[in-house]
Amino acid sequence: MSILDGRPALKAEVEKVAEVAGYLWQNGWAERNGGNITVNVTDYVDDAIRAMKPISEVKQIGKQLKNLKGCYFYCKGTGKRMRDLARWPMDNGSIIRILDDCSSYVIIADNAVMPTSELPSHLTVHDHLIEKGSKYRATVHTHPIELVAMSHNKKFLGKDVLTNILWSMIPETKAFCPLGLGIIPYQLPGSNQLADATLKELDDYDVVLWEKHGVFAQGLDVMDAFDQIDVLSKSAKIYIDSKAMGFEPEGMSQEQMKEMSKAFNLPK
Fold first, then answer.
1. What is residue 265's predicted lDDT score, i.e. its pLDDT?
2. Is 131 a catalytic residue?
3. N or C: the chain end with fewer CB closer than 10 Å?
4. For 88-119, what is each residue's pLDDT tens digit?
5. CB 215 within 8 A of CB 142
6. What share of the chain is helix, strand, coil (3-state, %, to 5)?
């Protein structure tokens, strides 16, 4: 019996994770076990779930995250493939409970699948979101081909350089990713330095690009986080396809983008 049985709201959230995992794989953004998804599902937890006994020993997060006391998360499992998560989300991920010390957790369902090794980074972002009073509940890390390719060119890595290029490729990008794209110079994957830099950039952006690695996005739910990556990736593909055709794409002018920001009441 699954924890999702008889809980349609929780089941719907996990099914969204599975749907997005499928998109990541189909787009070629999730090779092997690449990428991670973590969703705060506390709002869908009932008393029966709170009374569930753990199915794992106590695991340490490695830091104290005071805002996560008693929270519940669905997490992709370590070493698990997105293509498998898309079909069997509760065999390739698990639901965890953060314990009262705010520095450890237990797995409560469905199987004792260890969460991603990048769990501390994801939970640090969630802790910060709760501290800010944000409504965001999901974080997604993946490897969009065109965006990663563009990160190999230093001229794109200045503040908001890539943001303005991507916004200018198609109006929908500015409309649906109005904060643009934060940039983080290369850091060792999974390191505290990368986590700290990501947290800082997420104060100003909803999506950040890790140089030569991938992107990290936050959103209202997993689909919202995916959508922002998707529109940015489309713009990157338009830019690269134009260059492959032998010309520099003109893009929307600054005046046209300002006009759009005003018309649609965008923040930038």
1. 87
2. no
3. N
4. 999 999 999 999 999 999 999 999 999 988 89
5. yes
6. 45, 15, 40
Model's pTM, two decimal places?
0.95
Q: Which of 222, 221, 223, 196 is nearest to 210 (CA)?
A: 196
| Structure tokens given for 131 | 């501290």
Q: Strand, helix or coil at 32?
A: coil
**Residue tagged active-site, from 13, 31, 118, 211:** 118
Is the torsion defined by CA of 123, 124, 126, 127 positive or negative? positive
CATH of the domain at 241: 3.40.225.10
Tokens found for residue 180: 């643009």
Q: What is the pLDDT of residues 189-246, one digit of tens each?
A: 888 888 889 999 999 999 999 999 999 999 999 999 999 999 999 999 999 999 999 9
Range of the domain at 27: 1-141
Shared domain for 131 and 199, answered yes or no, is no
